[in-house]
Amino acid sequence: MDTNIKLVFSTVFTSFFTFQLLFYFISSWFSAKVSPGFNSLSFEKKIEWHSRIGSTCHSLVVGLFGLYILFFDEVAKADPLWGDSSLVKVNISIASGYLISDLLILILYWKVIGDKYFIIHHCAALYAYYFVLRHGVLSYVGNFRLLAELSSPFVNQRWFFEALKYPKFSKANVINGILMTVVFFIVRIVPIPPFYSYIYSVLGTEAYIRLGFLIQCSWISTCIVLDVMNVMWMIKITKGCLKVISLIRQEKAKSSLQNGKLD
Q1: Measuring CA to CA, which residue among 96, 102, 117 is closest to residue 48?
Q2: At what angle do helices 139-146 and 86-108 cross, to 10 degrees?
Q3: Which GO CC annotations does the UniProt entry carry (predicted)?
């Protein structure tokens, strides 16, 4: 077996096993230590809690590793279409192991955390990652897409605050909500125009033609699916953020009015 294939399989398996271990064992122990409110959660809430702990850990690992690759991996930068980077393969293998683990958990606990959009997202991502891992193409592009995961810790933290019944207008909740909206916009929405501009710039080039019709269609179609979902989520997040800001303003107005009456 080729060394690169061995590296991919071993990394995917290790990643899958690690996230399964995290979900079933480590998360409970860790969460009980750092959050006194964890033990009082219902079974259903704990399942989603463990799932989001795994999501946060995965996002931090592949997101930060992806940033390092983006700036320092010369192999990927030198040829975005055909640069076969070992570092990118490791990062995408970690992500693939997590996605397979999370798909299994979603199916096993479908009544609790099942979500058709996550199934579509995970399957589309795995399908795209297959071409990077199997054919060694689009390494730079694959790693670039992984940077979108940097928004997930803020999304998950919002859910943790809600599960622990933090007041919506608490300082921690408001700050996290604003950061979530800003970071989500920066890493998932801002890159859309330059990304598709790059696709347009390489259409018809020799390097693009060498990819073959299947990889060309798969690359573009999976990115479109993922970006449509990103836009949908961005709209939902923005509406929620604007609603909270509006409610905060109303509360401040009421408070000022009451203070004025007291004066």
Answers
A1: 102
A2: 50
A3: endoplasmic reticulum; membrane
How much helix, strand and coil, in percent to the nearest 5, is found in the chain?
Answer: 85, 0, 15
CA distance 123 to 94: 15
The pLDDT of residue 248 is above 90: no
pLDDT tens digits for range 40-65 = 999 999 999 999 999 999 999 999 99
Asked if residues 87 and 198 have their Cβ atoms less than 8 Å apart, the reply is no
Cβ–Cβ < 8 Å for 143, 88: yes
Encode 130-141 in three state secondary structure: HHHHHHCCCHHH
First to last CA, the chain: 81
Residues 6+ apart with CB under 8 A from 44: 112
